């Protein structure tokens, strides 16, 4: 299976703290990859290294066979990468409509993909994001990223604050859209949702190291996954 993006022996430090200890992992092209682990396991640091928010102290970030370790966030975004962080993912002063329109201005308005996936947003279009609930803001952030039609989509705990029905809809859409568009998705979660068992690969992180890599059915029985 071809690889879209990978970390090769990546180490990431925040001051005296090393968050990733020589991490090796890969995400297959045109599929969904899930990063599992508890808070502090290194999942978010992996996404930040992939997105260019942090530069590794050692190792390489390889995207489509190209070493992009030295590229910044905006350069990777121009190449087709979109990141939805777990927090502060919207601009409070902008309306929902502005968020969706700015993501793809040539379309002249919110994309059908976003509103079909999250019909709840239709009634919120004129509202400023700062007036929304946490779950509503998450919907806006995810919809904005989808509206940009990224080649590589990184989602940090996208289920946080979402109703179960909305989360299930999102997971089904991610799995189907990757097959239809060739988009690659990397998503983090603390535990593997039943609605993401169709993912291509799972990596389990623990204290900055990958302790398991395999298919979605395996982590539940892998001896190290519960450490």
TrEMBL record:
Family per record: Belongs to the ABC transporter superfamily.
One Pfam assignment: ABC_tran
Keyword Transport: yes
Source species of the chain: Kitasatospora putterlickiae
Coiled-coil blocks: none
Protein name: ABC transporter ATP-binding protein
GO terms of molecular function: ATP binding
Keywords: Amino-acid transport, ATP-binding, Nucleotide-binding, Transport
Start and end residues of each ABC transporter domain: 5-225
Matching InterPro entries: AAA+_ATPase (IPR003593), ABC_transporter-like_ATP-bd (IPR003439), ABC_transporter-like_CS (IPR017871), BCAA_Transport_ATP-bd_LivF (IPR052156), P-loop_NTPase (IPR027417)
